[in-house]
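Continuing the series of single-chain predictions for the mutant panel. This is the parent chain; the variants come on the following pages.
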Amino acid sequence: MFTPAQKEVAFVKGSMYGPPGSGKTTLLAMVLLYLSIVFHKKAPVAWLASEKGVDFVMDIFKAEGVPLLISRSRSFVDLKNAHSEAIKAGCCGLGIDSTTHYWRDLLTAGMKRGGRQLEKIQRVKEEWEPFAADFQDQPIHSLATGRLGYKWEDVEVENNQGEIVKELARNGTKMKAEADFG
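Parent structure:
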């Protein structure tokens, strides 16, 4: 049952979210650069870009001598294939900036299909799951950014007439993507 302890390769898996301009892309780049330089002898980094933020960090990769491979897309199909394509290209890490766009692409397409609302949402979540599993399980550093979203809940409040009514209120923050991902 027990064997001598040995170090095993561990891969960073992480996500960050925030409003536009808060530094998500720069932080993503810095972490991926660090991992490439310190642990992978400046191996290439893959970047799936759904927006133009990567343009601001390209020069940093170049200055550090780390190849940056970019795919510009907002297609969920590209997101779903990103981990395997990055590994095939010899990359040590994959940055996804911003996951929110891919989620919206999948959700928009899924809601146009037939069926009841709950069935549509369930199918969309089932389509998202293989990407989420790859994000967690593939032997590559996986880091993603996403837009700031809010958690909502019904709360009871007293109205002007002294009656207790339910009102929708923000109750925390999250990434604007599939609820179990961020």
